[in-house]
Amino acid sequence: MTASHLPRLNRDIAACVDNALTSSLEKTRAPGIVHLGIGAFHRAHQAVYTQCAMELEGGDWHIIGVSLRSETVAKQLNPQDGLYTVVERDDSGSKHSIIRAVNQVLVAPEAPEKVLDAMCSSNIKVISLTVTEKGYCYHGANADLHLEHEDIVHDLAHLNRPRSAIGFLVSAIKRRISLHLPPLTIISCDNLPNNGSLLKQMVLSFAQQIDKELARRIASDYRFPSTMVDRMVPASTPDDLSVYAEQLGYTDQGMVLTEPFTHWVIEDSFAGPIPAWQAAGAIITKDVHAFEKMKLRLLNGCHSAIAYIGFLASKRYVSDVMQSPMLADFVLHLMHHEILPSVEAPEGVDIRQYCKELLQRFSNPKLQHSCYQVAMDGSQKLPQRLLNALQYQLTHQGICAGISFVIAAWMQYTSGRDLHNAPIAVQDPLAKPLSELASDNVQEWVLNMLAFDAVFPKNLAYNARLVSEICGWLRRIRDDKNIELSIAALLK
Ligand code: CS2
């Protein structure tokens, strides 16, 4: 137990895994999980819990990883037999473990039929996903599956060669049902509120388009637990790989770098067996929502704020932002005065201590998490990270200058120009329409932005107080051309 009473990964087991080269784990490596979206986060989080679970309580739970877009991870991991190193680093040093939970990586665009075969194997009991927010093809304004999304249109027409995670899931489930295979537990591990229910809704909406009976079977037999996942995992750079190659004495193309902290809360709702994740430190509970809300708003909300103000203040890493007293004070203000009021502590968690630990995690100078990386896909992130807390503050006549400031900073960012007019390579599925809203007429820009219903809920569009807050901060940011100066005005 730690000060905020959150259980952590069983460290002794992590160490024992590291020395387990000759364990039974090595001999069989039989798969039980297909994971869609095997990026760095999965490799530093669920795969580590799964390996610990196998070490503790056994079971055939190796992972077949799937890349839905690029072949990069397959090229890194397959020649290494799926093995890779997780390096945890902070001020006190670094620690590494070799993870052997991944069997192989399939590349969906190259061989969708292989992915479907894997998902339809009778050994597979769990399918998990980290496909990022945009991978759910969710349409904010309709609060449902985006039926006009090009991947969904494609998958509805070519169910045997899908592209999207949703298309793969429905195609595989349809086949599993026709083969009389047992139902699966399908676990979303993305940073979305009620991620399990959301995924279920997307899968059912897609299935309805094909066959209502299929949708009914999925709803009754398959389980979609919600989860709260937490570990900061920056993208590894070629420099990192060469530095660690020297330190470790081997080259690992699939190495992932992360922080010591890790946390996983899973809703207790399963269609069949699961690995002994609980023994490895995960919490399995009936009520995951309190954890999700706390984490999405306090951690991810502040993280996105740090990313936009940090980028515009020419800070490279999240920890650089925390080193500026002015910017760090802003984060503190945002966290405590504007986000925290809308969050209730999950049972047994000391939320003040949780906030304190978050500030320490953001400040970890060894993590090197770039503002640019966290700034990606803001249109998909802001609603659950900051706009829910904003709605709470507006309804309760609370302060919202900080959140409005972050929205103004994000708007400047999405314009594709920084405060000195240098171009920004904005990575966001809605980058084009967002940049087209930018205007020298700030009032017009803000009104059009708040009416952009793929991001902003309808009730925010006409909120006079919000319009005036954001206009004020956006003008100020653009006039000052110095984020720290503008923040000084906010904090005074
Ligand atoms: C980050 C998250 O990139 C981002 O948007 O806020 O990936 C964050 O590092 C994790 O959610 C931490 O658990």
From TrEMBL:
It comes from the Bacteria. Pfam families: Mannitol_dh, Mannitol_dh_C. It is an enzyme of class 1 (oxidoreductase). Its EC number is 1.1.1.-. InterPro entries: 6-PGluconate_DH-like_C_sf, 6PGD_dom2, Mannitol_DH, Mannitol_DH/Oxidoreductase, Mannitol_DH_C, Mannitol_DH_N, NAD(P)-bd_dom_sf. GO terms for molecular function: oxidoreductase activity. Residues 287-471 form the Mannitol dehydrogenase C-terminal domain. Gene3D superfamilies: N-(1-d-carboxylethyl)-l-norvaline Dehydrogenase, domain 2, NAD(P)-binding Rossmann-like Domain. Coiled coil: none annotated. Keywords: Oxidoreductase. Residues 32-278 form the Mannitol dehydrogenase N-terminal domain. This is Mannitol dehydrogenase family protein. It comes from Glaciecola siphonariae.
